[in-house]
TrEMBL record:
<dbReference type="InterPro" id="IPR023210">
    <property type="entry name" value="NADP_OxRdtase_dom"/>
</dbReference>
<dbReference type="InterPro" id="IPR036812">
    <property type="entry name" value="NAD(P)_OxRdtase_dom_sf"/>
</dbReference>
<comment type="similarity">
    <text>Belongs to the aldo/keto reductase family.</text>
</comment>
<dbReference type="InterPro" id="IPR020471">
    <property type="entry name" value="AKR"/>
</dbReference>
<keyword id="KW-0560">Oxidoreductase</keyword>
<keyword id="KW-0521">NADP</keyword>
<dbReference type="InterPro" id="IPR018170">
    <property type="entry name" value="Aldo/ket_reductase_CS"/>
</dbReference>
<protein>
    <submittedName>
        <fullName>Aldo/keto reductase</fullName>
    </submittedName>
</protein>
<feature type="domain" description="NADP-dependent oxidoreductase">
    <location>
        <begin position="21"/>
        <end position="257"/>
    </location>
</feature>
<dbReference type="Pfam" id="PF00248">
    <property type="entry name" value="Aldo_ket_red"/>
</dbReference>
Length: 282
């Protein structure tokens, strides 16, 4: 599996497998399939409430620990120094691991500076190999970087053909933060899978729209974590290293950008308030 080298030297597979919205009762089997298909990088979060099922699949796979790359995330209500340490311990237990590869602040809300200081210590203690953030706009990202010791290794943000985030990408590049896409297929919104430009480009390579958009992200150096509960799509989403998009094809895809989220804006006060209402069982 192709990897990127993070700013602390850790190697991260550029393609991973996301488990958001995979029902808890299905997650173990779905992750079993993903691991059988060849994924070694799994992206979960405390807020997905399926870490324990992910953990069972990891354990049952028999794959040696250092071949796996596991990301999980800290939820908003557990920000703050002490709460972060406790939440991290619970995630580690649920995943059945003794370290996590990448721990992310899921949202730029609540006391995430306290969270970051706790995460810097977890890094020092070897309980996590890398720390990063998610859903940070460039201003918040730079503020976190310039006021702390450790620079996040990634910023995981909504990124797909309709919301390409080129300005964010440039700022992340300047600070050595890798761009990681969530929602690489925009969850199929905007009829992405039948978009005429993407379909035509795919036909020229004998590839699906899904493969074209993953390839386009990878050629921009963006880490991708597509989600699918179907084994045939899991395989399809991994088969993106046997073709390349031309400069002209990359430019045609660039022209699809709308510059706007297809989900929600993390700077919208109503969203900040709404996300604060989401409480996990623990
Ligand atoms: N940090 C954050 O705030 C955040 C937010 C959202 C997501 N994420 C992460 O990013 C991951 C991916 O994003 P996402 O799950 O929101 O959406 P996504 O990967 O953009 O899209 C998933 C959807 O596409 C379908 N699909 C997958 N492969 C396909 C293919 N080859 N052809 C046609 N349809 C296909 C899936 O259906 P089937 O399952 O039926 O195949 C599912 O409906 C998540 O799982 C999660 O790990 C993070």
């Amino acid at each position: 599996m192709r990897t990127v080298t993070l700013n602390n030297g850790v190697e991260m597979p550029i393609v991973g497998f996301g488990v958001y919205q995979v029902p808890a009762e299905q997650t173990e089997q779905v992750v079993d399939h993903a691991l059988e298909t060849g994924y070694r990088h799994i992206d979960t979060a405390a807020s997905y409430q399926n870490e324990d099922a992910v953990g069972r699949a990891l354990t049952n796979s028999g794959i040696v620990r250092d071949e796996l790359f596991v990301t999980t995330k800290l939820w908003i209500e557990h920000a703050g120094y002490d709460a972060t340490k406790a939440a991290f311990g619970r995630s580690l237990d649920r995943l059945g691991l003794d370290y996590i590869d990448l721990y992310l602040i899921h949202q730029p809300f609540n006391d995430y500076y306290g969270a970051w200081r706790a995460m810097e210590e977890l890094l020092d203690q070897g309980l996590v190999r890398a720390i990063g953030v998610s859903n940070f706009f460039p201003d918040r990202l730079v503020d976190l970087i310039v006021h702390n010791d450790v620079t996040p290794v990634v910023n995981q943000i909504e990124t797909h053909v309709f919301h390409q985030r080129e300005d964010d990408h440039q700022v992340m590049g300047e600070y050595g933060v890798h761009h990681e896409s969530w929602g690489p297929f925009a969850e199929g919104r905007n009829n992405m899978f039948s978009n005429p430009t993407l379909t035509a480009i795919g036909e020229g390579h004998g590839k699906s729209v899904g493969q074209v958009v993953l390839r386009w992200l990878i050629q921009r150096g963006v880490i991708v974590i597509p989600k699918s509960v179907r084994p045939e799509r899991m395989r399809e989403n991994l088969e993106v290293f046997d073709f390349a998009l031309t400069g002209d094809e990359m430019n045609r895809i660039t022209a699809l950008d709308t510059g706007a989220s297809l989900f929600f804006d993390h700077r919208d006060p109503a969203i900040v308030s709404q996300l604060a209402q989401r409480h996990l069982d623990v």
